[in-house]
Every structure is written in C-alpha cells, then in structure tokens.
Write a structure and sequence with these properties.
single chain; about 375 residues; mainly alpha; two-stranded antiparallel sheet
Amino acid sequence: MTPMGERVGTCLLYTSSATKHKNRSLSAPFDLHVLGTPPAFILSQDQTCLLYTSSSERSYRATPYGHTMPSWRKESIIGHCNQNKKGSLVRQVEMTLNDRLAIGRKKNAHKAADITYKYIYSWETYRSYLKHCCYFVKWCSKTHGCKTLEECHPYMQEWMKTRKSLSPYTQKLEVSALAKLYGYRTGELDINTASRCRKDIKRSRNEVSRDRHFSEQKHADFVAFCRSTGLRRGELKVLRGTALYQDPSGTYYIHVTSGSKGGRERYAPVIGDIELVCKLCRDAGKNKVFPSIPSAADVHSYRAEYATQIYKQYVRPLEHLERHEIYYCRGDRKGEKFDRTAMKKASQALGHNRISVVAGHYLRI
C-alpha cells in the first residue's frame, strides 16, 4: 500500500444497478457484485477501492516512491463495502496519518494559525511516524487486547515507560508520533523523556560497528561526491545528472529539488573534487547519478566534513568581529566561538538555515 492509501492494481467496478443511477452522489455506499471477474480485477477481502468525485479532484502529485498517482477522496470502500468495519489497528493508524498529510502545503500559513501540530509535511516524517505508531498499537494489541485506536489511547504513558532504553532522540520521536496520531501537541501528552545531549550521540561522531561493513576505498567516487556536495542520503537517492548547474562566474552547484528535508529547494555549492562531481553528473545525464546508495555509508559524517570546509571558506578572524557577530556555544561545547556569517553560509549549503544545528552537529573544528 502506498502512503496515500491507494492500492496498486485495484479498480472501481460498477454493477448494472449502479449505472442506472449515475446522477446519485458517488459518496453514497454501494455493493460490489462481481461474477466471473478477470484475474486482473480480483479483489481480496481486505482490499480497498478508492473513489474520487469529479475531474477537479484528479490532481496528481509526487509520492515518496517517485511515481505519480491521483489525489483521491478520503472516502474508501473497504472489502465488499462493509462501511462499519474499521479494519486492523495498523490500518487504522495508516488511515489516521493519511488524514494528517499536507504534502505541498505552505507551512508558514499553518504556523501563523498555530495548527502545524495537526499536519504532516514530509514523506520522511510520515514514514517515521507510521513505523513508530505501529509499534505502539501492536504492543497494545498484544498486551491489552486493544482493537481500536480509542482503546489504545490510555496506554501511551505505559508504552513510553517500556521505551526508556532507547536514545533520547528516539524517545522524542515516539512521543511526537503519538501526538500526531491523536491530534495533540507534544507538550499536552505530559510524557517525560530523557534529555537530549550532543555528547551522547555515537553515530557519525566515532567509529561504530556498522562502519566496519563499509569500505571507503571500494566506494571512493561516492565518498568524494558526498564530501564535495554535502547532500543528504535521500537527496542522493533521487539525484540526476541534470541537477549540475554552473553560474555565470563559473561556480558549480547541485540544484536540489527533491529528496530534501521538508521539500526545500536549494543550490549546494560544489567544493573539493569538482572535476569528479562534474564527470559523474555529465555521464549520468537524465539518469540517476547513483543507482543505489550503500546502506552502511555514514553520509552524515561526509556532510559534516562538507559543512566544515564551507565554514572555513568564509570564516573571518574572530578578534576583528563585534560581539553580535560571534556565536557562543553552550552545553558540552561551551567556550567555543564561531563566526555567525560563515555558519550561516554552511547552514544554507546543507539545507538547514539554522546556525545552531551547524554548531551542534556539523562543525568539526
């Protein structure tokens, strides 16, 4: 099933009685009776047919898998049109989160109205929330015999107590997922999680066991490309050779239009091995630069190296700067100081636009 709820290979079948009443509202429930159905149209008992009401609703949009499909109506006909059947807990989670999707909408307007907690704005967030919400409802079903989301609701705090062994970042993610599932702001759940500290992060900071499963020598071109462009894993997956751009001054950029965090577009300056980046992009042309991305590659660490080099290109002597031009670190980096302007350049190249993120997770100086 796709994130929007469509099932591949399903179709809408009308009976003779249905065709006699074309003018009747399509949103009304009806039965499917199919005799001698060809194999291509066989519907399983839990299969879902999705219906749209007019040609104005047949708008197409990109999915997280790179295909296009119609923007369907929320009404669905489950199985043989048993409208009272809610489906499994996983199905209920999926339908609820589908209703929260706001892909392509302007988030600024929702921020002004203070309603961003009601919506999901990126496919990556959707997939993460779907996964962790399913963990929760499966636990509720196994432990308490719950069959609906309403029955699962009282057990959120109990569930989070079983998750104390997870990292603080994962705990925060799970609370956010539950809040989105039930339409709360995260603070309204009153669930305490461990504090997040930069010093506790292991991945991309020090060598971990997973790093031993990846050879930088065997993937030298891939590593050099990452260090020269600072692209995220998701951006690398969908990158095509046509994304290479050269401005009138001769500077090369990667024009990021898809796979980015929050769908933000940017021009990432190419540094380091510029010749290799240009060659790989030109050879790929309209095709993907990397047909597959090594799963064990520590892409974040290469982004950190990229950000550090961008910062060094623009940094000014701190002794010549005014106090308001200097960023003073806190926490485990207390005492370190950075040039705010250079940090902003690095942050924009990464696609973050927040210097605090650069200071906490990227600069290696």
